[in-house]
Amino acid sequence: MHHWTVYSSLDSAAKGAADFIAKQIEVSIAARGVCHMIVPGGNTPAGCFAALAEHSLPWEQLHCYPGDERCYAVGHSGRNDVMIRTHLLSRLPAIHFHSIPAELGAEQAAKKYRTVVDAIDAFDIAFVGMGEDGHTASLFPGHPALAETASVVAVHDAPKPPADRVSLTLPQLREARSRVVLAGGASKAAIMARICAGEPLPVNLIGDIHWFVDEASLSKADEPV
pTM for the whole thing? Predict the structure, then answer.
């Protein structure tokens, strides 16, 4: 079952998500001495990253991993790790960040990243994004990558550019101890209505999610479940 927290604005939802994530980081470090967290790309997480950086935590015990990466050259503005470095790592340089070497091409990058991911028992937090088609990470509706059982998959022929990507898989996201999605804006209202209706979109296939959303994103939805 999904867990919903609804706010009047995306900024408030971002802060709420940051507070929740900070608590989960504390719990993970207290229990295991370390926290392994998946972090998303895109534009939506920027405010959450800024709010998260305001917390006082043992950041050197946090390890962050992109949920997916686009196969561009290092430093390309379209890469997720550029956004993550700008909005999170620049504020909290003590964090250990494990980037995806997507500049090597999808197959080689997936192979190398799989070695990193497979060394972890399970992610403590999967903070992932959600697109207007219901995709999460680089797992798109109807795409063959959804059937991958390994921890990391090379994605080809993605419906959004670039065509080649690297992504964590559904089984890997399901194994995380908690999952978080931040979403907002009227542009997400149509897809949120489908999510709330239980349609088997990729984001609905990763397990229970702690949703942090604004009222505008739920304007077309029935009562979320």
Answer: 0.96
